[in-house]
Automatic annotation (TrEMBL):
Gene Ontology molecular functions: hydrolase activity; nuclease activity
Keyword annotations: Hydrolase, Nuclease, Signal
Signal peptide (residue range): 1-35
The species this protein was found in: Streptomyces lincolnensis
Protein name, as recorded: Secreted ribonuclease
Amino acid sequence: MLATGIRSWKSVALTTAAVLVGLAAPVVTTTPAAATTTAYDSTYYKNAIGKTGTSLKSSLHTIITPQTKLSYSAVWDALKVTDQDPNNSNNVILLYSGASRSKSLNGGDVGDWNREHTWAKSHGDFGEVTGPGTDLHHLRPCDVTINSTRGNLDFDNGGSSVTNGGGSTVDSDSFAPRAADRGDVARMILYMAVRYEGDDGFADLEPNEKVGNGSNPYMGKLAVLKAWNEADPPSAFEEKRNQVIYDTYQKNRNPFIDHPEWVEAIW
C-alpha cells in the first residue's frame, strides 16, 4: 500500500501541480512553510529528520545507498511495471511526451520506447554498468526519437518545441521536459546527486549551474531544477512509482518524492 502520510508543503506547489494522464493529484494538507510528513519518517528516514544542508545530504546518502541492483536487461521488464499506464495495463507512460505506448514496443526503432537515463550516462561516464547505469530511480521509458533529441543535454528552460514532445523544448545545449514532467526530472537528478557520492567506485555526481557539462560528472542547471521541483510537486503516479521501486525492486526510495522540501533544505 502506498504510504502517503500527511502532505504539507508550500502552497504555491498546490496551485501549479501538473498530473500525468488519468491521475488525480495526491491528497494534500497545506500549512505554509511546513515540512512534509510521511509514514517513513519514524523508520526509514529517522536519522535524517530535522537536519539540513550537508548534514541532511550525508544522512540521506547513508539511508538510500543500500539497494538491490538490477542488470541493464532486467530494467526493460521493471519499467513495464514501474511506469505502467494506470488507465491501460498493456501500456507504459513515456517520459517527456506523456504518451501511452504498448509495453511490447520496447526497442530501438522509430516508434519504439527505450530506456532513458535522466542523468545522462555520459555525465560521469558510467554507461550502462550495474549501479548508476541501471538505477530505476532515474531510468524511465521514453520515445526513441525524443530520447535521441535529448541526448546527453543538460536541463534548462527555453528552446524550440520538440516534435510530439508534449510541450518539451530543446536548443543547442539544453532540454526542458513538458511541464508535467519537470518536477519528476528534478527529483530524479537530485536523487542521483545524493545516492552517488564517489564512495562506491563510481563518479561523485553533483548538480551545477552550467549547461554543456559533457562527460564531467555534473548536471545543470541547479537553479532551474529547484524551480521545477517547486512548480511541479510529486504526482500520484510518481509516488506510486517510488513505492514500487522500494517494495519490489531496489528496496530504496527517492527522498525528494517523499520530502520535496528537502531540495531547498540541501541546496
